[in-house]
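2024-03-11 09:14:02 INFO receiving multi-entity request
2024-03-11 09:14:02 INFO entity count = two
2024-03-11 09:14:03 INFO echoing inputs for audit
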Amino acid sequence: MKTAVRYLIVLLIFCLVSLGAYELVQKNPSVANAIGIPAGMDDPGFGPDGAGFAGRGRHRPPTNLTPQQMQQFESGQPSEGFAPNGNFEGSERGGEGRIDIGRGLMGLLRNVIIIAAVTAAVIVIRWLFRRMRGPKPRPSPAGAPESQS
Amino acid sequence: MSTKTNLWIDILIFISFLIAYEIRLTGIPIHEWLSIALTLVIVLHLAAHWDWVVQVGKRFFHKLFHASRLDFVVDIVFFIAFVLVMVSGIAISRSVLPVLGLQLEAEASWRFIHSWSANISVFALAVHFALHWKWIVSAITRFIVRPIRRKVSSQRLQPAPITAHRDNA
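2024-03-11 09:21:47 INFO inference complete, emitting structure
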């Protein structure tokens, strides 16, 4: 019972912080500017799905299209013989989300190295800090004289 | 919750975090569902250490310099970064939300927050790991290294099976 209540409390805190963060970013566009997102990055873009393609890999209208091709581009219909990466889910953002075991393992290794390096640095800093402060004075045993003259 | 259970939960969180972080290793659906499962396990981890959180939270302002104060600050940073990762991840979700029949407008700001809070989470995890280094080493020694050593040494000490030699000479 006690554990269940704790679990619910932590979930509640998690939800409240999540909601706060969501509201803060969603309803206050100045937050996006404050954290350094370049202006115009949130523009809906020109592609058929608007904001879904904002940011990296944003679709821009090609300038050398015929009116018919332009109409196809704006309606989002692919022209004949054109297969836009099938139904691959990560294709719309320059391949982000594509499974690449080699690169994935390298990234995993990189993160392990980062964690190991930061851990080593923190342990060394703590050790140096303790050494600088010196050993803690041991409390004198009960009844023992404070100082001997 | 026993120390052994805590250790296994922590190992599970650590490995899941590393795997979920590498989207190229898992692809988007596993990345999203694994992250949601990870959130539930982290909530369990927090609930298991709730007494410590309350205790340190109460005496936070009593003593200016204290080791547990640093732990507390790092844990709060980690918690906020992780919550931001989750919220922004849900906001740009392409696998979990469609299953639930929801579709949010994926803004670039959420993608930016997602990647940056994930990077901060890795560093916060590393510092959190370092600050609890002694506990991790002692728990791994006690519950993983020693039992393995005991098992290996008991296998070595076991007498070889006696085989009967029959000489039919």
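2024-03-11 09:21:48 INFO post-check: Residues 32 and 96 of chain B are 7 Å apart (CA to CA).
2024-03-11 09:21:48 INFO post-check: Chain B has one domain: 3-55+67-147.
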